[in-house]
Amino acid sequence: MNNEQRQYARFNPEGLVARVTLENEALDQIYVKGEVINISHSGIRLKLTEPLRAHVNDKIQIQLILPESGIPLTIRGVIKHEIADNEFGLHYENPPSKNDYEDIILECFKVA
């Protein structure tokens, strides 16, 4: 039995590298590299190369380079799930429009 209740499908853009910045006023900015595990219209799940001193409700910034066009993309979000000390799920601070989201997904999967 599938109890999936997600409003938006998740996609797995294999090999999409992310540069993550922890936006914490109490700390200096912290940069960590990682990979996008999955992406949906409401958020992203990331696995980082090293632990990030971040927790639920912390704000982070993600910088991606779209694989086909090479266009840089900056996403801001709030951590909503801490899966491990190096894996997080976040919701977008400003969700992309449906057309922008579809363009991003299409480009990621053309290359994969």
What do you see in this structure?
With 112 residues, this protein is mainly beta. It has one helix spanning 98-111; strands spanning 17-23, 30-39, 43-48, 59-65, 72-84, 87-92. The protein has a six-stranded antiparallel barrel with strand order 1-2-3-6-5-4. The radius of gyration is 14 Å and the shape is globular. It starts with 16 loop residues before the first strand and ends with a helix.
List the helices and strands and how they pair.
Layout: E1 17-23, E2 30-39, E3 43-48, E4 59-65, E5 72-84, E6 87-92, H1 98-111
Antiparallel strand pairs: 1-2, 1-4, 2-3, 3-6, 4-5, 5-6
Shape: globular
Average residue pLDDT: 83
Helix and strand succession?
Answer: EEEEEEH
Largest sheet: 6 strands, antiparallel, barrel
How are the strands of the biggest sheet laid out side by side? 1-2-3-6-5-4
Radius of gyration, rounded? 14 Å
> Which percent band covers the strand fraction?
35-45%
CA distance, first residue to last residue: 30 Å
Percentage of residues in helical conformation: 10-25%
Uncertain residue ranges: none
If helices are DSSP runs of H or I spanning 4 or more residues, what is the number of helices?
1
Number of strands: 6
Protein structure class = mainly beta
